[in-house]
Amino acid sequence: MIDTINMREWIDRDAALHALGIKPQTLYAYVSRGRIGMCPDPGDPRRSLYRADDVAALRARHIRGRKLADIAAGALAWGEPSLATSISTVHQGTLLYRGVGAVDWARAATLEDTAALLWQGDREIRFPAPRVRPREPFSALAALAASGRATLGLGGNGLRGDAATAIGHLAASLGAARGDAPVHRRLAEAWSLGESEGERIRLALILLAEHELNASTFAVRVAASTGASVAAGLLAGLCALSGPRHGGAGMALAALMGDARRCGAGEAVAAWLARGRALPGFGHPLYPAGDPRARALLAELAPDETARALQEAAFAETGDLPNVDFALACLAEALRLPGDAPLSLFLLGRSVGWSAHFIEQSAEGGLIRPRARYRGPGPRSGPAGP
Hints:
The chain is built from 18 helices and six strands. The chain has 386 residues and is mainly alpha-helical.
């Protein structure tokens, strides 16, 4: 319980900022990534305290410089590149799919075209609907994984075929209508949208299709390295995506937007930051000048007054610009989509990128098995015998 906390182990925000020499938004980022523990101040629940040991450890790491072990550990948290890929990258603030600017590509391509680009196959890609509609994404992929074939030794066409089948099941579980039309049109039909609204769905799916080596993609590659089925790999990605620091960020953003509607954007942002929480929907470590995916999507929308006020308040307090999560929330609001639509679009679009990484990892072979840096007690004797 909070009232049992040893206060000597916790420090306030000003002390943490001074010790690390960082800005508040950087502190909140450390908290959101689990690098600094945080709890409410027992004396004032509106304020937050930060674990002193975590702050001291980060400070020591900064002082002693980046040794080899630190670089290896940092590679797992927005650090040095840890895997080679030719699928996508972020170069000087621009997202590239196989060297093609993703925003430019998204102006006319379909998700099926994007799969063909990222999977590098010589056959047309379609995402066939299953005979029986799955109830939801987890059960759809779990059922396929339970009967799926191992992928060791499976050729590229076999991998691409299994990926297309799995994505077809995912699309069906998200409500996409049956038929041979591109999947964005099938989703638009299910959501009773017109052609122009369907084009915005298409744009969102393609902008979300791939984003280098994020947490869910890494999970997919680990599964692929074991020879698991494609469906099992996508299920691993979905499990990682479901966490509140990844795909679940949309739920936190919905809460922030609800606060902004009730008490005003400025007060909502201030209260959120006072609790030591990074603002969901704003800022991205790979895009210091702003997320180009968000810009492209927001350019096709007319965010409401609350959304515009929230952008202004967030920028005034943190200097951060909207990211693609914010743009997805605005899209869902503008088109009156179901509450889970932002996560559904994220999942369906990103499944194409996951599949590309699964295919690439399978072709490279080898098990992904990094070493851990042990921080426990040293060797000791076991219990005495009888």
